[in-house]
Structures are given as C-alpha cells and as structure tokens.
Amino acid sequence: MPTDISTLEKGYFEACKRQGIAPNKAIVAALFKAKIKKARHEMSTFMVLMDDLKDVDFYPLLYLLKEIDASEIDAVDMRSFSTGVSMPGPESEVLSFSEAQYGWKFVHMHTLNLDFSTSLSGFREDCFSSMPNLRLLSLCETRITNLWTTSAALSKLPSLDELRFQNCSHSNDAGCPSASSVNEGIVSGRTDLGFYIELPSPSDDALPNLQLNIDDEDLDDYEMDARSTNTDSSDDSEVDFSGYHRDFGSTELYPNIPLSWSELADFENEISFGSLDTHDEDSFSGGSFNSSIRTSVVSKKYISRNPSPICYEKHYREYMIASLPNLKVLDNLPIGSDERGRANDIFTHHFEYLPYNRRSKDNVVSMLQKHRFLLPKWESWPTLHPLSIMGGLSRDERRSFRPRQFEYHPTDSRLMVFGTLDGEVVVINHESEKIVNYIPSLGAMNSVLGLCWLKKYPSKPWYALISLHLGYIAANFLELIAGSDNGSLRLYDIQHMPTTSRGMSQNRGNVIFDEFDQLTSVHVNSTDELFLASGYSKNVALYDISSGKRLQDFADMHQEHINVVKFSNHSPSLFATSSFDQNVKMWDIRQKPNQPCYTASSSRGNVMVCFSPDDHYLLVSAVDNEVRQLLAVDGRLHLNFGIASTGSSQNYTRSYYMNGRDYVISGSCDEHVVRVCCANTGRRLRDVSLEGKGAGSSMFVQSLRGDPFRDFSMSVLAAYIRPSSNSEIVKVNLLESGDSDKSNSYKQQFHSVTGMGG
Are 570 and 527 in contact (CB under 8 A)? Predict the structure, then answer.
C-alpha cells in the first residue's frame, strides 16, 4: 500500500528536526498542494522551484525524494528558471549520480536533462551506474569535451537510446523537434533545467509521462549548492574555453573549427552531414584510408544549436556512434545501419580502442607475443598527481616553486630537474617528492628556459674515478646544463656541489659559459662533449663542455628566431632546428653548417622539434596543433596526426615521444588536454583532460615529457586558470585509475608564464 502524503510530510518534518533546521516553506507548500490534488482525484505532483531552496534544505529533501517513490505522489517536478546552473557540491565540475554517493538508485529515471549546465565539464567513472533505465540524456551547452571519459561513462547506461550534446534540425524546420516522442519540451530551448523521472503509479504498472526536474551535478556528502552561475567568479568561464567558447543560442560554425561533419555549408549555422571524412587525405601517409568509406555530401542542411565543446572534436559523431552500439539517436538525428557502419570504419582508421591496437583487454597471449611485455589494466580515468615538493629550505618543509621547465634524468628513473621563473634549479626525487639539490638563482638568472642532463660521460675525466653517494641517490654522474632567458649558461655538477645544512648548494662546482642572449633552448650531444644554444635570434651557438669555451656561432640559420635546437640521440654531429619561419632544418657540424642537409616546412610557425629515441624520425610541432612526423633521413612526411586546430595563433603546441617511439603525446598552451597518438599509424589512443576538482581548476599545457622508464606515463607542466596560482608539475599514469578524490584534489593554481622554451 502506498505511503500517504501526510505520513510523507511527517517524515520530512522529522528529517528537518534531525538536521536542526526549520522546514522549507516551499517544500511544505508543495506537499500541501499535492495532498489537495490527491483529494480531488487529480494527478498529484510535488513541484518545487530550486530557486526557493537553500543548501541546508537538501538533506531532508533527499530523504523526501527517496520516500516519494513508494508514496501516493504521482510525479515530481523540480526546476530552476536560472539562465545558467551552478552545479551542486563544493564548486564541483565532475558529475556523479552513483548509488554510493546518494544511498539510492535512480531506477525509475528514464530522461535526464542537464542542458545549459555550464559548470559541468566531465563525469566520474561510476556516474551513471545507478540509472539502469535511463533512455534519453541531454547535455547541450555544457563544458564537456573529452570523448574518451564521456563515452566510457555513458557505456554504463544499458538502456540509453537517445543522446544529445547539441540540438540539430533541418534548416527549414521552425523548431528543433526531438527524434523521439518523449518529452518534446526538453529540446525547446527553455531555461528551466534538470533531470526528469517517471514515477510508477501506485495502482498501475504503466509509467505515465511525469517529470522530476532537479539542477544537479555532484552531491558530495549531500552538500548541495543551488546558486546561479550569475554569482560565480568570471574566472570560471572566461579562460576555460579558450578554443571552444561560444555564445548561447544558435552557434556560428567557423571553418577553422573542425566538426564531426566535414563540410560547412555556409557561415550562417547551416552544416552538412554525410561526407564524414573528406578532408583527411593528408592526415596519414600513403593514402591508406579505404575510399569506400567516403560518401558524397548530402544536400540536406542542418542547423546546430547550443552545442557542447565535445561537438567540435574531430570525428565526434563517428566516435560516439562507434562507442555506444545501442544508441539510436544522436543530436536529434537517427542513426541508420549505413551510418553506423561508416562510423565503425572511421573509428577503426582514426582511433585505437586499446594500446597497440588490441581488440580486447584480455588478449594477453597475443600481446606478449607482439610486444614482449604485460600491459596492466587500461584505465579510462588515469591518475593525475601534482608533485608536492618536500625539503629545500628547512627540514620537512613544503614550499611553493614556480616551475617553467623540467627534464627527466636519462639514466636514473627517480630523478627530475626543473627550473623556475625565479631562476632556481631544483633536482628532485619525483618518487618520494624530496629535493636532492636546490640551487638558488643568486641574482644571476631570470626564468630558466633551457635544461639538459649530461647522459653518459662526466665533463671532467677524473670524475670517473670518484664514486660518491648523495643520500638515497646512487652514484650517477649528475651534471646538467641550465640556461635562462637573460642569457646565463651554466653547467652544474650536482653530485659534487657542496651543500649547506639547509639543502642549498653553495656557489661552487659549476662552470659558467659565455652568455647567449634571449635564450630559449639548450641541448647536449650524444657524447656529452658539445652543446647548442638557441633563442630569440636567427643564430645558434656551439659550446665545448670540457673547456667551457664557445666554439662557434652559426649565423642566419633561419629567417626568424629559432625556438628549439636538438642534437640527434645517437649521432654526435647531427642536429635539428625549428623556427617560427615555418621551417625545420637538419644540420651536420662536420660540414660546417653553411647549408642544411635538408629543409622541411610547416604551414605555421614551428614551436619545437625532437628526434625519436632511435633517430628514425623527427617530431615537429607547429602552432595550433599542427603535429607531423618526418623521416629523419631526408625530411619526408611520414605522418600528419590531424589534430584539430582552435584558430588561435597563440596556441603553442609541444609534442614528445612516449613508450620509446611507439606513442606521441601532444599538448598546447590554450588547451587543457593532452592527446596520445600512435606514432606508427597516427591513430588517437585517447585524450587526457587536465581537470581538477573545483570550479576554475582546469589546467593548460605549458610543457610535457614522456617518462623514459615507465610505459604510458608522463609529466605535464600545467598552468591554471587563476592568475594568483602557480604552475605545477603533474604526473600522469594512464595505467592507474585516477577517479578518486585524491587524484582530483588540485590546488587552484596558475601562473602566467613567459618565454617560449620547449
């Protein structure tokens, strides 16, 4: 027998008493109105405006909602008339509806509408695990961007038929009707937002079309916050969408922002579907893409309204269709069998489901035969761990640095060095997060933009006869070159530099080289005999490490400044330069480089270049995600990774190798994502979103490096939104789950970094 409304009301009063709060007048009034409706034998609806609720009201409200399912109330309708929604929780940006968090399942929810939830940027792994009957999900004009974590979360919805990240309609349609007949109102563009639940009638097994509408994102410990985004800090919205921000309403689709559909019909919101990949001929070498996948452009035009940023990801529609095989409608457009087949083909060509293109997580035998190592479980939500440095100025003291550049040690898996905006050089054990050596700037350096470890040989031969230990660090040759933007260049012998009782190195045990003005890059050759320096000039300087002398200046090597110079990993005389004149050049010192060995050109200014670990390839990164892999022998194009551009001329992109030469990681300073691509095929393995917990905690890629000792691990130098925050180094492990409060609890840090070092 269903619980009568009077009993439900009494339980609500008791819940308020337990919390020590007065009952909310709007909730009491809603219960009274529902009771009157029931007495008149009308549909009994519990309706409350979110705007009438305070934070303290949500604990007893959740109790009430949990009990309503078995009560006389037929429907629940809770809505907000705000133009934006600030999601509940402590300024949370990550959505969760998990049973563990709420203590109950949303088993009767069939429709969930989170349109215009402008604080919503992602999902937790178990976000939808308590919604077995959800059939329709609408997420228009949110901040969701990541295809990988989004599809992984949505795959937990076994009944999902219809999904929307934007509202699409025929250009001659007056409105934007849904492809399904359920709840037409949720695509009408109104601003009362939330999720809708059908409740079972106490006397009938049929499910009437009734609504529960709650502005909800993440009820951490039932702490809910119904504030409108109008009260939020401007930091939360202005910077986070540097490449994706659009005004509300119909969206202009600019030609420099690739969509999942390849043809833009015009500049007035009309887009064309059908030719899913007609502009990717140069994305991969050899033109290996099966031409049967391509179709002619369909003449029918569609208008896109209120898109979320994920819609601008390349091959967005194909990816979602291939990842969610039970989906019937995407963005109001039905999914036919032909389109699903094309989507699967495009997914196979452009993406890897698992590392090394494995088809199954359980295919261990085949994997061992092909790759000779056992790969642990692949995680959709990887671990992100900001380094918290211990020591340096006094014992057990944690202090804040402003890192600007960093490098892993080439032979000791525990060591990393970073230089700061204040001219400090800090050697750390990144496993224990303890400082090994701290070198203050001593007023001689500004921002440290160039760092390079010596790899094999000490700069002074007699050092090879000495074996010393620095605490827990084995007897390695710990020497490195550090260069700053004011031209200062020094070699630091970390292992033999005397330190004070407070951990600071005294100003001895280092070599000072002739200055190189406006320096941005240094690199040591494979035999540790020479190093090169480049910067905001057209010249490159060659130094002898052993003597400390500047051997030669190579003038006018490019038409514009040379941002990065890199020696080959195995040939001590070959080096490559990358310049904002759009050229990359290969040089040989033995030929007294008056002419390059060859020149390769990009369509935009080159930010950096690096050799693959075996020297077979050059990885070239130009402005705004133009990432290409060249054959090192002659500069011919091997792969164009086809990463979508944002249209920003200030979106400086950097890319490095990971797992030897098997994978490439790429990030840009205007985006909070690191892309992982197969270096052999160009297929995208996944994107890693650098999202912390809390509003305004998105991180943007300043620099990054693959861990040379750990597969599918990297570190990212991240800058935060808030100008008052410092940059920090974040370690990323793609093989460990990071969907936890610990891995997502970031400090709100950001520092506006100057200089262009690689």
Answer: no
Q: What does the alpha-carbon distance between residue 532 and residue 574 come to, in Å, rounded to a whole number?
A: 11
Percentage of the residues of the chain whose pLDDT score is greater than 70: 65
pTM (global) more than 0.85: no
Q: How far apart are CA 588 and CA 166, in angstroms?
A: 53
Confidence bin at 539 (pLDDT 50/70/90)? very high
CB 302, CB 169: distance < 8 Å? yes
Q: For residue 545, with 0-12 CB atoms within 10 Å meaning exposed, 13-18 middle and 19 or more buried, which class applies?
A: buried
d(CA 73, CA 2): 9
Q: What is the pLDDT of residues 193-221, one digit of tens each?
A: 344 444 444 343 333 333 333 333 333 33
> Do residues 103 and 231 lie in contact, with contact meaning Cβ atoms separated by under 8 Å?
no
Count of all residues that appear for the chain in the document: 758
Which token pair is 687?
């994107």
Calpha distance 715→695 (Å, rounded): 23
**Rounded Cα–Cα distance for residues 467 and 37 (Å):** 87
Q: What is the pLDDT of residues 226-250, one digit of tens each?
A: 333 333 333 333 223 233 333 333 3
Rounded CA-CA distance 560/121 in Å is: 39
The mean pLDDT of 65-74, rounded to a whole number, is 83
Dump the DSSP string for 1-36.
-PBPHHHHHHHHHHHHHHHT-PPPHHHHHHHHHHHH
In one-letter notation, the amino acid at residue 181 is S
Give the full edge-to-edge strand order of the sheet including 162-164.
194-196, 111-113, 136-138, 162-164, 329-330, 333-334
Q: How far apart are CA 648 and CA 652, in angstroms?
A: 9
State how far Cα 503 lies from the chain centre. 36
pLDDT per position as a tens digit, 292-340: 433 333 335 678 899 999 999 999 999 999 999 999 999 999 999 999 9
Mean pLDDT, the chain, integer: 74
Neighbouring residues of 658: CB distance < 8 A, sequence distance ≥ 6: 664, 665, 676, 706, 707, 712, 713, 714
Confidence of residue 157 (pLDDT cuts 50, 70, 90): very high
Determine contact, residues 460/501, Cβ cutoff 8 Å: no
- CA proximity to 211, closest of 47, 97, 331: 47
Closest CA to 175 of 162, 159, 186, 160: 186
d(CA 512, CA 533): 14
Q: Are 656 and 646 in contact (CB under 8 A)?
A: no
The stretches of 589-707 forming alpha helices (DSSP H) are none
